[in-house]
């Protein structure tokens, strides 16, 4: 039974969390005090009695993990850190200031924050990823706690998480929904109708517990019940009041994301019983376990392919990933129900214990990858490249999380043929280039794919590999190297009149064009720009110098933002990019401009004017033109 | 009671739909016959007895609407069109061929297809949009029928649709889930567990009916029950078998997305009772109603702002949208629970009957916009620009749908300040530029915003407006015009040494830099590139000619794919883009390169080197440099 003393301690801590949330935001002049106040009682009990976390060793594999999905309640999180003794009152007052670790929404700039939040509906799907790691890979008994706002349950990604968590029986995952009834601009869709939340959660296979989120005994009992269940995840649906504890704020509209003015602050703090400086000793995990390593690392034996054979790069991806799996026990794979198309199924068959089927839920897939890398796994997540666009916000946020994930998109471009435009990724290079910390790779051959996949594993940031559906000729030897940031000069002479730059499927069109042009005694350099970001600036500059500034870039992508844009950037003045000093640039971009339909790959490449015919024509238009116009 | 004759007719039609799905895919050599066969009985009954549709007048406002969310079952849809007498057997055999209207997945190239499908989980949320139009705007009694696959219910967007459909009591919306148990690579998550589907649907407020999807009587009864309910949407959860009717296919793995070979086809057709050439008369809608026009159009009176005042462009968006609402009764607005930040709330207050609160569900918001434009409404959908990235796949598919929608993203860039990177859109220009049919606008001033908003209404395709959180000076008169595709030369002289190109917040930094440079006797041209796509190529070329090729582009966006990329494209050889013939281009791109944190807008602009200081430095580096390097 809970003692009166215990209740008093919790109460005092909760009031301190409220007071500190107000103090920090008032100093900052902005932020979300009222959203921080509604779940303060719940957090007080969690921090005092349930969380198992060694603040001095955030990487301790036995630590529980806490994700503040309602990231705008960052002041509450920082107040908790203060109560735990790891940040000072002084640092709390740096909230939202330039250079402070206490950003407006939490990011891993703080050592105790695993993932950035603030785009709502992401914390729970990421929590699923961490819980998958805990239950199936680490096999350690830690818990993953996720605090959600009620508004964010409108996001479908939250229901992808509900679905996957029960599918994978994640009894180590505990969600708390802070049902304070008020969103940014008014009442939420469901208000305080906690029964509906509970019914939905139960239909998705969860234990659902409805409580008064300001009743400390109910909170305590709910946490106990959550820890007791061992066949499903638990969600605690807590009815709360926004701005709880201050009459002028409590359950009132118009206070979302507003700091109190000095006079209001004074009154509010008085009402909450004044400032406190309570420090609590957060319990460290009792367990001293180590993650279960899944298999013994073998020397890396990448697949090899014979030159001249026809092999799809997606096929090589599956082979290489499987090889990587043998060599690196931390490599894990996820796929969104198309593993027989992306060839992630090879890995799934070889290492079923390290493969997670994510069904058709790309947001959850990317979020799970982010969660898995929190625990140092190296997730490769694959789907059709077109469908990765479903999770673009998760990729954007993964960058804010400083996450290290690998995304693999197959079936890129119109060269997929008959299936039509819904299945064709034509914007993926643009979208993925415009992500901080990203690497964008687009191999043209199976041996090259294998070498790139092996480098992806240790590459930090968001690493994207674009693969091709069609089988294409193997043009490189299996012993060649393809460093990220490099390129490959596939054809060159000392008489080159232009340079053709392709990648993936279009490199093969460039090679066909090379042959035809050579028959007409026009020699061109052909560059395989397999590393779209970072791009090989020096090789491009040299080619432009050697070929009179004539460049033709050809890509199976919309005209905007892809390979052509990457090449143009190599010649622009951007930060530390070396300056180009050669003949004046004359660059032609060949890319998809009209909405394609169905057809054979060859027909579609031709219709879009990104095939050998179009390249030949473009090169001729350049070499015929006098220099210097 | 259903007669034996009726049952026989339905059976025969269903068999024909199966046979034709096989015939078309065998000729094509690819496609999805088995996924077309499982729901054939359901479609036979729908087409024969429930659908109200005038195939000769697809725009008839009283028509029911049918959306094939499982777009890979396109052969079934085309077989239905053949049965309805609107396409020939010959055209059926053109499936998946270049130039055919019968693409691998349905697109509006066909007059009876309202929206493209094929990226799963989109049909139902789009159906919500059409049903919103029917119930609240048209106020006509047509129904919206959506056929989903079972696999696609893993997509969170489906649950956003379940949620919103019940919230808006869309009793005119009827979903059918074809539970054939088999996904692309194996069993679905829930298999034939139709009870779980039903429980989830009911928890989300729907009438759920479980049936045997091959029992014609049960199908008929379910449709009747769906039409009878008038307080909620209905979902029919139909247990079916993939490849139904052919023993070598039925309920077997390994047959997803595979056409039968000629010999297999012959056997299968025999088993299904041979070819049939049944034509049916689809019932036309009995009603002859017209859409209820919501209000009488008034002359357009755009808001005006005094030069020198400080007004946020997001504020002007709200004002202008409201003005547009008075002038154009077809303008409707949606927002994802941030209408008090985007200022869509002004429209919501003025025209509550034309405003749809989408809560925090950006995928559903964009899908609803697509659905609303099916019925000729002009939807403006707004959220923080960062969060529109949540619906990127829906934007991509909206382009395939040839949809006319307007997206408005507020709080763009690091200039939002303290809230930190999770709230900052820094990839939106890149992402939206790389969408077919897109227009990308980024105004710098309130009067300009109003003029652009008024042009958005009639602009086809995906039209994106990026607005700024901060208040910025009004620099233009309210009588000035800002055509899409244009730009504005804000400062110029006949002694300009360089050109600075900005848009939105950075234009104001450019103007500050102009003043400072002028004090040092360096004159620069300043261009406001408010139309990022299409960009004003001629004005850029002229500026480059006039200012010795010295261009500085400054944008509050990542370095990739945004305004700088648009300017570079203006000087590249792309299709019909005019050729530049002036001094050699020396272009400096100033954009965000490091992950920002919190800070004041001014601090963050400075830290990112996209403020006046950085512009001054860049211009000086250019004008100091001798020409021709």
From TrEMBL, chains A, B:
<dbReference type="InterPro" id="IPR033248">
    <property type="entry name" value="Transketolase_C"/>
</dbReference>
<dbReference type="Pfam" id="PF02779">
    <property type="entry name" value="Transket_pyr"/>
</dbReference>
<keyword id="KW-0106">Calcium</keyword>
<dbReference type="InterPro" id="IPR051424">
    <property type="entry name" value="Transketolase-like"/>
</dbReference>
<dbReference type="GO" id="GO:0005737">
    <property type="term" value="C:cytoplasm"/>
</dbReference>
<dbReference type="GO" id="GO:0046872">
    <property type="term" value="F:metal ion binding"/>
</dbReference>
<keyword id="KW-0808">Transferase</keyword>
<dbReference type="InterPro" id="IPR005474">
    <property type="entry name" value="Transketolase_N"/>
</dbReference>
<keyword id="KW-0786">Thiamine pyrophosphate</keyword>
<dbReference type="InterPro" id="IPR009014">
    <property type="entry name" value="Transketo_C/PFOR_II"/>
</dbReference>
<comment type="subunit">
    <text>Homodimer.</text>
</comment>
<comment type="similarity">
    <text>Belongs to the transketolase family.</text>
</comment>
<keyword id="KW-0460">Magnesium</keyword>
<dbReference type="GO" id="GO:0004802">
    <property type="term" value="F:transketolase activity"/>
</dbReference>
<feature type="domain" description="Transketolase-like pyrimidine-binding">
    <location>
        <begin position="311"/>
        <end position="474"/>
    </location>
</feature>
<protein>
    <submittedName>
        <fullName>Transketolase</fullName>
        <ecNumber>2.2.1.1</ecNumber>
    </submittedName>
</protein>
<dbReference type="Pfam" id="PF02780">
    <property type="entry name" value="Transketolase_C"/>
</dbReference>
<dbReference type="GO" id="GO:0030976">
    <property type="term" value="F:thiamine pyrophosphate binding"/>
</dbReference>
<dbReference type="InterPro" id="IPR029061">
    <property type="entry name" value="THDP-binding"/>
</dbReference>
<keyword id="KW-0479">Metal-binding</keyword>
<dbReference type="InterPro" id="IPR020826">
    <property type="entry name" value="Transketolase_BS"/>
</dbReference>
<dbReference type="Pfam" id="PF00456">
    <property type="entry name" value="Transketolase_N"/>
</dbReference>
<dbReference type="InterPro" id="IPR005475">
    <property type="entry name" value="Transketolase-like_Pyr-bd"/>
</dbReference>
């Amino acid at each position: 039974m809970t003692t009166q003393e215990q209740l008093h301690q919790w109460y005092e801590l909760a009031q301190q969390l409220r007071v500190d949330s107000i103090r920090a935001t008032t100093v900052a002049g902005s932020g979300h005090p009222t959203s921080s106040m509604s779940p303060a009682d719940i957090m007080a009990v969690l921090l005092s009695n349930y969380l198992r976390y060694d603040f001095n060793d955030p990487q301790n594999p036995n630590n529980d993990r806490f994700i503040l999905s309602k990231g705008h309640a960052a002041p509450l999180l920082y107040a908790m850190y203060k109560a735990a003794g790891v940040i000072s009152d002084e640092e709390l007052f740096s909230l939202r200031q330039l250079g402070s670790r206490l950003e407006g929404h939490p990011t891993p700039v703080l050592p105790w924050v695993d993932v950035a939040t603030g785009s709502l509906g992401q914390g729970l799907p990421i929590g699923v990823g961490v819980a998958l790691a805990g239950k199936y890979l680490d096999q350690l008994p830690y818990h993953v706690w996720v605090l959600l706002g009620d508004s964010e349950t409108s996001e479908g990604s939250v229901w992808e998480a509900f679905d996957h968590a029960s599918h994978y029986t994640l009894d180590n995952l505990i969600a708390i929904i802070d049902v304070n009834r008020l969103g940014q601009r008014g009442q939420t869709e469901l208000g305080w109708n906690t029964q509906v939340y509970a019914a939905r959660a139960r239909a998705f296979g969860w234990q659902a517990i409805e409580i008064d989120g300001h009743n400390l005994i109910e909170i305590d009992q709910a946490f106990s019940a959550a820890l007791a269940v061992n066949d499903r995840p638990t969600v605690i649906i807590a009815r709360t009041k926004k701005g709880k504890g201050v009459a002028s704020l409590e359950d009132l509209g118009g206070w979302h994301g507003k700091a109190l003015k000095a006079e209001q602050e004074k009154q509010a703090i008085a009402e909450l019983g004044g400032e406190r400086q309570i420090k609590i000793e957060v319990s460290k995990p009792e367990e001293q376990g180590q993650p279960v390593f899944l298999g013994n690392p073998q020397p890396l034996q990448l697949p090899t392919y014979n030159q001249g054979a026809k092999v799809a790069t997606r096929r090589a991806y599956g082979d290489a990933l499987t090889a990587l799996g043998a060599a690196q026990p931390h490599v894990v794979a996820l796929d969104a129900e198309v593993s027989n198309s992306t060839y992630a199924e090879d890995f799934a068959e070889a290492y079923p214990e390290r493969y997670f089927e994510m069904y058709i839920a790309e947001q959850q897939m990317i979020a799970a990858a982010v969660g898995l890398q929190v625990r140092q796994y190296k997730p490769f997540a694959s789907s059709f490249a077109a469908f990765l666009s479903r999770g673009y916000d998760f990729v954007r946020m993964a960058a804010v999380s400083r996450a290290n994930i690998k995304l693999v998109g197959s079936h890129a471009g119109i060269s997929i043929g008959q299936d039509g435009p819904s299945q064709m990724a034509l914007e993926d290079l643009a979208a993925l280039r415009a992500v901080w910390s990203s690497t964008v790779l687009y191999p043209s051959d199976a041996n090259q794919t294998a070498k790139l996949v092996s480098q992806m594993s240790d590459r930090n940031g968001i690493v994207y590999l674009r693969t091709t559906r069609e089988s294409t000729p193997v043009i490189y030897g299996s012993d060649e190297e393809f460093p990220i940031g490099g390129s490959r000069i596939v054809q060159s002479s000392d008489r080159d009149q232009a340079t053709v730059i392709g990648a993936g499927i279009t490199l093969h069109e460039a090679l066909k064009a090379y042959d035809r042009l050579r028959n007409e005694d026009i020699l061109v350099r052909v560059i395989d720009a397999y590393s779209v970001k970072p791009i090989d600036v020096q090789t491009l500059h040299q080619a432009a110098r050697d070929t009179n500034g004539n460049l033709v870039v050809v890509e199976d992508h919309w005209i905007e933002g892809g390979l052509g844009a990457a090449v143009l950037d190599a010649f622009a003045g951007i930060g530390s990019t070396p300056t180009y000093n050669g003949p004046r640039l004359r660059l032609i971009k060949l890319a998809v401009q009209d909405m394609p339909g169905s057809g054979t790959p060859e027909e579609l490449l031709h219709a879009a004017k990104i095939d050998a015919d179009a390249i030949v024509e473009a090169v001729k238009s350049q070499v015929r033109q006098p220099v210097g116009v």
